[in-house]
Amino acid sequence: MTTVATASGATSKRYQRITRTRGSLLTKHSLWVGEGELLWMDFSAMQEHYRRFFLEDVQALVVYPSRRRARLRWVVSVLGGLLPSLLLWWMTSTVVWPVAWWIIPVSLLVWNEWAGPSVTVTLVTAVQRLELRPLKRRREFDALRAALLAAGALTPTPPPAAEVSTPPTSPGEVGEAPAPAP
Amino acid sequence: MANRWQQACPGCDLYLELEPVDSGVLPCPSCRMPIEYVLLPAATRHASGAVRSERASEGEASCFQHPHKRATQECAGCGRYLCPLCAVSVAGTCVCPECLRTGKRSGKGPIAERFKGNRFVPADAAMTLSVLGLIILPAAFLTVPAALTLAVLSFFREGSLVNPRRWPAWVAIALSLFEAFFWTYTLLR
């Protein structure tokens, strides 16, 4: 938790970091939990921009696995490891530098595995559905859930069986929107 | 009763009509992708959309704006009695729409703080400018004084809302001084 001092010197708000800051030098974003709100912070060069989601308006968080970790494996292995090491081998005609280069992609791959499974989280309110882009990993979502539990926004309940609509009976039904509920 | 949702399965794009009654995992019936739901209290709240205000009886406290409605809360800003329609919950307190409007407009206080959409962060701006001076060398004549000014200013002004840190200001000062000495040395040689 961080404490923010206002201009008057009094501490006014507390925010708990949920995700690390992602992005580039000029644009970054991260997710924080404060008193009764979820704060999405975008940073652009000199200013912080805030998007607030009050917990009393949030209906649900929908989580499903994403392919980000698998994609990163390929990108790091091929673009970050194989191609540069082949280039180094072609330029230096030795194996020392190409092999030494692999320290970097291997470290990234270890970090990628250590960071855990990747997920996509969608925030649902009565009027919007929004993908929480700063939140990419399962462990970050678990941290968010723990923060919401600590804030009293969630009630710990065992996972029950819930109703799902009838599965499609023909391939034509797949991907089509259902008829409006009566 | 929970609200009904239409959710496209991210795995197969099948539209599911769901009525999740509690947090849990619902596998897609078509591709079996596990879709997990974490429900918050708003999900099980009735979605009628209507705010019910009861008529005030004789001798009961009534709303300032609606004299015929029974007051249920008091504005934390001006002390006026409010019916459920007029009561706005902000930052853990209940205020009337007028206090909300004036509080937002003033730019100070808990209400303005609660709704602030952006904030200028002098320390980060100083660091961005000092890095810019390193990348575009001639720009240092402009960025160094600006970065130093902003870095010093950051010690007296409020910074980031969520992460009030000072190290970008120190980095900006160090980089700016380095650039200033570099250019002074280069020009005097």
Mind explaining what this structure looks like?
- The complex is a heterodimer of chains A (182) and B (189).
- With 182 residues, chain A is of the alpha+beta class.
- Chain A has four helices and ten strands; from the N terminus they run βββββββαααββαβ.
- The longest helix of chain A is centred in the middle third of the chain and has 25 residues, at 68-92.
- Chain A starts with a strand and ends in an 18-residue tail after the last strand.
- Chain B is an alpha+beta fold and 189 residues long.
- Helix content of chain B is 38%, strand content 17%.
- In chain B, strands 1-2 form a two-stranded antiparallel ribbon. Chain B has a two-stranded antiparallel ribbon with strand order 3-4.
- The termini of chain B are far apart.
- The relative contact order of chain B is 0.08.
- The interface between A and B is large, with 64 and 60 residues.
Descriptors:
heterodimer; A: 182 residues; alpha+beta; six-stranded antiparallel β-sheet; three-stranded antiparallel β-sheet; 4 helices; 10 strands; disordered N terminus; disordered C terminus; B: 189 residues; two-stranded antiparallel sheet; two-stranded antiparallel ribbon; 9 strands; flat
State the oligomer: heterodimer
What is the H-and-E element order of chain A? EEEEEEEHHHEEHE
Distance from N terminus to C terminus of chain A (CA atoms, Å) equals 47 Å
Order of helices and strands of chain B: EEEEHEEEEHHEHHH
Strand segment count of chain A: 10
Q: Which two chains form the greatest contact, residue counts included?
A: A-B, 64 and 60 residues
- Biggest β-sheet of chain B: count, sense, barrel? 2 strands, antiparallel
Query: Can you give the mean pLDDT of chain A?
Result: 79
Euclidean distance between termini CA atoms of chain B: 80 Å
Q: Proportion of β residues of chain B?
A: 15-25%
User: Structural class of the helices, strands and pairings of chain B?
Assistant: alpha+beta
Strand content of the residues of chain A, in percent? Answer: 25-35%
pLDDT below 50 for ≥5 consecutive residues: which ranges of chain A?
A: 2-12, 158-182
